[in-house]
Amino acid sequence: xxxxxxxxxxxxxxxGGAMLVGTALPxxxxxxxxxxxxxxxxxxPGQASLRGADSPDTAVWCYNGVVSGPELRVxxxxxxxxxxxxxxxxxxxIHWHGIRVP
Length: 102
Prior knowledge:
It is built from two helices and three strands; from the N terminus they run ααβββ. It is of the alpha+beta class. It has a single domain (29-102), classed as Immunoglobulin-like (Sandwich), CATH 2.60.40.420. It has a three-stranded mixed beta sheet, with no helix packed on it. It is elongated. The chain starts with 8 loop residues before the first helix and ends in a 16-residue tail after the last strand.
């Protein structure tokens, strides 16, 4: 079985030119991955209903007013910069899941 395909000079030049232009543009995902996501977390005392509506609120420590803290999403390969303000009565630490830290 033989196969032959003929391409015109015009098609060759147009296709080659399109490939050259395409290599000059950055990949779409690359720009998003290189942008730095900036977030601010405020650790502070708060109140939350942990035992149901009929029970009194419980004193909790939260981030940005949420008991478990806000969900932070960064694309793979992306960078994140987080400023943390500690309004708690003592020192605190954060345990990060799914992020490599030095």
